[in-house]
Amino acid sequence: MRTRPDVITDLNVGNRVVQIDEHGFLVDPEQWDADVARTFALQQGIELTEDHWNVIAFMREFLTEHGLAADARFVMRFLDDRATARGKSGRDLLFELFPYGYVGQACRISGMRQPRAWSTG
What we know:
By secondary structure, this protein is mainly alpha-helical. It has helices at 34-44, 50-66, 72-84, 90-97, 102-109; strands at residues 8-13, 16-21. It has one domain (8-109).
């Protein structure tokens, strides 16, 4: 992940202010909460479903446990069981939930910092 964004902007979320970088990612993942997720999802045109919240919870837990955002392949593996029950792969379900990309949507909505480089699996 990047160590320092070039531009920091304040964003009003509910009754508080969070800081985002020039690409709309949280500067500090500790500022994340469900209101931030809803705000970012609304900006992306996504209505959060139970599947979205499951992915978000997985990503937040991974961040807490490992100190960094989960690579997309870990999220795809997490989704494999529920996707298989629907005749899909975890990859298919991930990109159905976040059609404009793992980093641009899933990471942003889950409150991750903007990564420097990323593998989408």
